[in-house]
Amino acid sequence: MRRLSTWLLSALLLSASCSMQHKKTAETMPQPFGATGIPPALRSKSADAGTPVAAGGNVSGTRGKLELTPEEDIVFTDPDNVDANLPELSSLLSANSKHRGPWEQSETIAKQRAASEGKPLLIWFTDTEHSPPSKAQNDELFALPEFEKWASEKLVRLRVDANAKMDDTDLSIDEKETRRIDLSAYAIRLRKQYKVLGHPTLVLLNPGGEVLGTYRGYKRGQGAFYWGLLKQGEAASASSYRKWRAGLEKNGYREWHDRGDKKVLAKLTHYADGTLTLIQPNGTRCRTQESELCDKDRAWITEQKRLHDIR
């Protein structure tokens, strides 16, 4: 019995030693298919085969989201008197309405118009002198009367030309050269900002400034195809904007019109003696007189004063 116990103990020790040796060998053996163990023929052919998802599940992104500036994040010139030196609503509306032709030349004005009008912004990166595809895109799409009619109703457009021609005939030679350098630097900055690698490139933004789509290149005969892409982007933007605006209206925002029927989406934050202080969704504050508003807005104010017993 004693001999049997000794033999059994030796067998157990030998078995454990072999098991550990096998595990060590498996760990140190070279893997023919790499760390994944997946044969190359079965791996994804894409350079971007996926993004690991952190514990807790997928989180929806912010693409297409329209941001509302929290009031606590708004910086005022005079924090002790936030309504001091506010711009007049009429001046803001006039600045937004000043544009030459169907294409804006200023990104600032184009974005202001897109936000106030609730329209997506189409940025066309082009090169009028050195890009035949840009010329073809213009001839086969942008120059069409039917596209012009659609775009004027649905979009705000900004043209960024790598070789923009200056039409300021009153400038001196030195002033024109300075202007040319400024325009070139401006185009370079925007190309870098929107990751534009060549011409033509179309970038479609929603009214809040988020990129909805980027469409690179152009081949003759693709006018209808690109118009279809823009229509899809505009429809998606319009749907998102309606939901965003409905949320704002629940929080007191409404559309205000001046006597010339120019409009702005804003919230009334203060009223006294016929003077209104308004704030737009992007945080811009302005003031206006009740007398400068349309009849419908003045009727709304009269009703609000009655409801709140304001004389």
How would you describe the overall organization of this protein?
With 311 residues, the chain is of the alpha+beta class. It has two domains: 163 residues, 3-Layer(aba) Sandwich (Glutaredoxin); 55 residues, SH3 type barrels (Roll). Helices cover 42% and strands 15% of the residues. The chain contains eight helices and eight strands, in the order αααβααβαββαββββα. The strands form two sheets. The chain has a four-stranded mixed beta sheet, with helices on both faces. Strand 7 and strand 8 form a beta hairpin. It is globular, with a radius of gyration of 31 Å. The relative contact order is 0.12. The N terminus is likely disordered.
Produce a short descriptive summary.
By secondary structure, this protein is of the alpha+beta class. The protein is 42% helix and 15% strand.
Kindly state the percentage of residues in helix. Answer: 40-55%
Termini gap: 112 Å
Number of helices: 8
By CATH, the topology of the largest domain is Glutaredoxin
| Contiguous runs where pLDDT drops below 50 for at least 5 residues | 1-9, 22-79
* Sheet with the most strands, sense and barrel status: 4 strands, mixed
What is the gyration radius calculated from CA atoms?
A: 31 Å
What is the CATH homology-level superfamily of the largest domain?
Glutaredoxin
Secondary-structure map:
Elements (H helix, E strand, L loop, with lengths): L1 H27 L60 H9 L9 H11 L3 E6 L5 H11 L2 H10 L1 E6 L11 H21 L7 E5 L5 E6 L6 H28 L2 E5 L5 E10 L2 E5 L5 E5 L5 H13 L4
